[in-house]
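The record is kept unedited without comment:

——
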Amino acid sequence: MALDRTLRGDLAGADLGDGFHVLPGQGNALVAETDAGLVLVDAGSLPAAPAMVDHLRSVTGSPLHAICYSHGHLGYNAAVGTWQAHAAERGDPQPRLIGHENILRRYARYRETLDLQARMAAVQFPSREGASWRRMLPAFVMTDPTETFAEALTVVTGSRTVELLWAPSETDDSIAVWYPDDGLLYGGPATPGDAIPNIGTPLRTQRFTIRWAETLDALADLGAETLVTEFGPVVQGADQVRRRLSHTAEALRWLRREVVERMNRGMGEGEVLADLEYPPELFDEPWMTPNYGCPDYIARDLFREESGWWDRNPTTLHPASPGEAAAVVRSVIGDPDAVLERARSLAEAGETQLALHVVDLLALAEGDDPVVVAARGLKAELCRIRADEVRPYVSRAAYRSSARLLDGGATSWQQLP
């Protein structure tokens, strides 16, 4: 399974100077030369690890002292075993494996829900091996760290100090790595790069907006001269680093205030989304680009944080099964061809989202009635169009995965290949 381009950091293979190198791993896998040996952030995925090892050995022969887990998402440290085998082949001591203490609970949950994690990954990354969730399972190797910490841990002292800092953001086990002697900060998942924080991603558990903002403020207070982001560029200059971190925190707090204010007025989730207008002075910066996350995702997660699952429509409180509900709707449509024609006309007018609402009157029904089959085909076409209309990667992937499922005649995500 080749490494998906969406998972590669912008700095892959870069030499940052002064003994800092970025390996071609999952994200910007940063390695630093220290008196104790090499300290690596993230072992990478199984497909990425051989190239990571090769690149590292092209620039230094020092032993690997430690692997630091940036966070507990699957894949980032699947290849720990590759690095352990490499150390054994060289006759080096085994590297320390260090992560935040919350990783242990996360890995336990992932082991319990492994099929679910693979299914979600297949939807979110549909270009990978045809997105078969069964083929993804072997890649989800989890090796527990052998050392954990709660707030902070100094890994190495000497001519280059390496400090790990708890930086809850994308996950509750995220860390940042601070090199105080160099004034360099690896922000980890808290600083994804030229992208707005991916809070509220459709296929992931809840993330907490203000906690992320507080982490960014704490990182800004370090006074770093250089920031290495998780997937994006190196940011140089103390003022630029502080501005990026503080500005993002400010935007997150703006979202919190505005969503809560509308909830206090009694708005439901859909009403909040329709009413929000994102000020350009906060959201039109390169590091706020909605290319993976987006402001709407964050707004929805904030709504979920302060509300229950109910969308305020009484019909959804105790719903019938999807098939039964769709069959009843289908039974009252006098001219189903008119539904298809209306959906097509909306699509031709550029109203793809409205067309999706209309076609669902038929497409959600079960069975092989020709008009229902035609509706599913039209919905697949609309999903592909919609994927080209939106910017966030996860939304585009979800539309394309949905189209692929509909093309196969599926009526449930249980039928995901």
User: Anything to note?
Assistant: The CA atoms of residues 102 and 193 lie 24 Å apart. The domain at 5-189 is CATH 3.60.15.10 (Metallo-beta-lactamase; Chain A).
